[in-house]
Amino acid sequence: EVGTGTIRVASLSALGHGLVPRAIVAFSRKHPQVRISYQVRTSNVVRDLVASGSFDIGLAADEVDTSGVLHSVFNTPRAVCVMPKNHRLAEKAVITPTDLADEAFLALSPEDTVRVAMDKVFAAHGVRPRILIETPYGLTIAILAAKGMGIGLVNPSVIADRMIAGIIATPFEPAVHFRALILRPPDGINSALITDFTAELYAARNVLSPDGNVSAS
């Protein structure tokens, strides 16, 4: 039965490879007898899994349909520019739109809310980035940046715990923020295990950044 002995968790990719595993490790050390079913899926799939009651907890981007689920804001981290350590912009303290005018740009998918915001920022500064690759996954952008394919903006959670070697992350101005939601089924059982796991998610978020927004450092 959902919530009794087994916890089912789904997450979008941006939080699914760094932040959520932190929570899983901490929870499992306290509850070694509890089985965790964990999936990293697109935000729309995460929402559907939670809305159907198949999963207890979901983390999804804010563009998902929130009808049929309980939801609240989980974090709003500031986007960072990722690039190889030997990139010509690597010494800059802040990256601006004009810095990226002639750079090979690794972009999020057009429907991503941060991509939409970035397109508006570029347009306001009269910059048309030279988009080399589009992908829905910030992790892919970070890996490609590490391999020298270009520079891109990502959720800093994808580079938490220094999971990807050979890159640096630099603040971008003007600031653009990601926004993730935590989702629960409308009729979900609010068991002690669910409460404890949710607490570990917030603890992992707060360790990565005390203000609740994951830092780039």
Walkthrough of the structure:
- The chain is of the alpha/beta class and 217 residues long.
- The protein folds into two domains: 6-76 and 180-208, Periplasmic binding protein-like II (D-Maltodextrin-Binding Protein, domain 2), CATH 3.40.190.10; 80-171, 3-Layer(aba) Sandwich (D-Maltodextrin-Binding Protein, domain 2).
- Helix content is 29%, strand content 24%.
- The protein contains six helices and ten strands, in the order E-H-H-E-H-E-E-E-E-H-E-H-E-E-E-H.
- A five-stranded mixed β-sheet has the order 2-1-3-10-4, sandwiched between helices.
- Strand 6 (104-108), helix 4 and strand 7 (130-135) form a beta-alpha-beta unit.
- Helix 2 crosses helix 6.
- The longest helix is centred in the C-terminal third of the chain and has 17 residues, at 192-208.
- It starts with 5 loop residues before the first strand and ends in a 9-residue tail after the last helix.
- The relative contact order is 0.25.
- The mean pLDDT is 90.
Features:
217 residues, five-stranded mixed β-sheet, elongated, 2 domains, alpha/beta, D-Maltodextrin-Binding Protein, domain 2, 29% helix
Mean pLDDT, rounded to whole units? 90
The count of DSSP E runs of length 2 or more, i.e. the number of strands, is 10
Number of domains: 2
Helix percentage range: 25-40%
- CATH homologous superfamily (4th level) name of the largest domain: Periplasmic binding protein-like II
Number of helices: 6
CATH first level of the largest domain: which class? Answer: Alpha Beta
Low-confidence stretches: none
The H-and-E topology, N to C, reads as EHHEHEEEEHEHEEEH
Q: How are the strands ordered across the major sheet?
A: 2-1-3-10-4
Assign an overall shape: elongated
Q: Major β-sheet, in short?
A: 5 strands, mixed
How much of the polypeptide forms β-strand, as a percent range?
15-25%
Q: Which architecture of the largest domain per CATH?
A: 3-Layer(aba) Sandwich
Radius of gyration: 18 Å
CATH topology of the largest domain: D-Maltodextrin-Binding Protein, domain 2
**End-to-end distance, in Å?**
40 Å
Output the structural class: alpha/beta
